[in-house]
Amino acid sequence: MALNLLNLSILFFLLFIVNPFPFVEPRALQLPVFTKTLQNLRGVHKGQKANGVGELRSYLQHFGYLTNGDSSNDNFDNNVESALKHYQEFNHLRSTGVVDDETIKRMSLPRCGMPDIVTQPNANQLLVAPNNYSFFPGQPKWRKFALTYGHMSSVVLSNNFFSSVRAAKLRALQTWARVTNFTFTERAPPADIVYGFHRGDHGDGYPFDGPYGVLAHAFAPQNGRCHYDADEPWDFNGQNIDFETVALHECGHLLGLGHSNTRGSVMEATYAGQRRSLTQDDIDGIRALYQF
Ligand SMILES: [Zn+2]
Ligand SMILES: [Zn+2]
């Protein structure tokens, strides 16, 4: 009996070592709620403690500006200030290190869920913010140019909605194909690129957050997964969240581009209305990656 208990203890110990936080669920960033938090933080700066600073830490960590985003720590310390300044610089705002009006406005905009600044695996240092286009760490890219793509959603889509999505997805892929050597052929999954609509926690550790906030995310080559938040007010006429605009951006990630801080580029992280054409920055980025 004692031996069995000992074995059981060892088993639990091993489980804990293998997966030290087995019961922690990934948390979605609730950006519309976060906007209210930001408004309460207006004017807060280094040396102060205020409710919501922890959420600001989480935001800055999620998008790559801070390595420790402990959401229970409401102290606005040196780390938060320098991360906030980094965010402001990357976004062409005044680098005040204070939660000011233009920072609140920028952080409240819908955006892509991928980080702006990507850390090197196992590195403690953040990469320097790019001045224009960027790549994922290690510059992963496709080893072939003839790619297949297909659709698989975990929510039910109406026929009308899906036919609009399909047409917009094709146009977005063709826009990239025109400036590269890539070809895209539609087929039922399995395919090189699999895109779909998902709601909330959908099993990849990056839960969606309901309307607005994070709109979509896509993984670096040669992963091929591209997910759209099913709860967005998607639109095909540029009235609300324009699907083709977001699809064009996410296709950039699928092909190997990170976020750009060039204002107006497709690979800019923030959604700023309909944007269905590539800019020179986007074209320079993809051509530099594949040496076209
Ligand atoms: Zn993105
Ligand atoms: Zn996902």
UniProtKB/TrEMBL annotation:
Ca(2+) 3 binds at residues 209-210, 229, 232. Its cofactor is Zn(2+); Ca(2+). It comes from the Eukaryota. The active site is at residue 250. Ca(2+) 1 binds at residue 232. Zn(2+) 1 binds at residues 202, 204, 217, 227. One of its GO terms (biological process) is proteolysis. Gene3D superfamilies: Collagenase (Catalytic Domain). Residues 138-292 form the Peptidase metallopeptidase domain. InterPro entries: M10A_MMP, MetalloPept_cat_dom_sf, Pept_M10_metallopeptidase, Pept_M10A, Pept_M10A_Zn_BS, Peptidase_Metallo, Peptidoglycan-bd-like, PGBD-like_sf. Residues 1-20 form the signal peptide. The keyword Metal-binding applies. GO terms for molecular function: metalloendopeptidase activity; zinc ion binding. Zn(2+) 2 binds at residues 112, 249, 253, 259, 267. GO terms for cellular component: extracellular matrix. Keywords: Calcium, Hydrolase, Metal-binding, Metalloprotease, Protease, Signal, Zinc, Zymogen. Ca(2+) 2 binds at residue 192. Binds 2 Zn(2+) ions per subunit. Can bind about 5 Ca(2+) ions per subunit. Pfam families: Peptidase_M10, PG_binding_1. Belongs to the peptidase M10A family. Matrix metalloproteinases (MMPs) subfamily. This is Peptidase metallopeptidase domain-containing protein. It comes from Glycine max (Soybean).
